[in-house]
Amino acid sequence: MTTSVPKSSLDGWEMVVGLEVHVQLKTRTKLFCACSAQFGAAPNANTCPVCLALPGALPVVNKQAVGLATRAALAINCEVQPVSIFARKNYFYPDSPKGYQISQFDKPLALRGWIEIGTRSDSSPIRIGVNRVHMEDDAGKSIHDRYAGATAVDLNRSGVPLIEIVSEPDIRSAEQAGAYLRVLKQILEYVDVSDVNMEEGSLRVDANVSARRRGDTKLGTKTEVKNMNSFSGVERAIDVEFARHANRDRRAIGGDSDLHVAFGREWLVELRDLVALGQIGVEVVLPRKLRAQLDLASGGDGHAHRQFHGAAVHHR
Question: What are phi and psi of 180, to 5 degrees?
Fold first, then answer.
């Protein structure tokens, strides 16, 4: 049950939000094998020794996925890195047969981008920074309502190519978060890197939410709300979490030491136990070619999402 917080109790507090958006790339096959990446097949039909993580199976990266990820990074004004490294993110979950996820950590595909979501009253643009874009493979899917007293696992989605777009903590309201997500979805759809079908899980959002006193510059302790697949759901979750944070911190400052102890610790870094697996190189000519396509479609102003509706794509 959600407890409402009087708006007056939020006065003097500032919301700080960063978003992590997971986007399935529009490839015919998975990131490291030739299995189909299409949605809707019979359970476990699109699997092979690679995506089942059988002993001796070795991954081979999907060149088309790298190209689409690069196009997406350029469309949101990121700097594509000449070398990016895949790393192993170790964690156990039943729908992850490898026991780890292949992701990127200290050397991602692209860095330092931005998305413009509107203008202020003085006509200056509102820009949300993009910290990074990195590639990774998806996990399978646990199904809890198929069999009584048991959980089924469908590994068709295991190994499907994703990009994760990580914003800077520049968002200050649920409305800004919704605007950021809607503009980002439009850009990705227009440059034809994903179908961004949220009902099928092609776009999923994690929100990192914290609160701080207005005027403070130090970030507060955050919580992460994971795997949301609707913009209205993201907006509601952000508002609820911000109210909870502000009310909690207000009472803690007022002398409720137990509350401060219970909620005051820093969260552990999510990316942990990373082991480098291999690197990919993005030749300078590829970003130049894709940037030229985007500029041509947008009239050379760099805002490709305004007019660009996708170039021909040959799926692997």
Answer: -60, -45
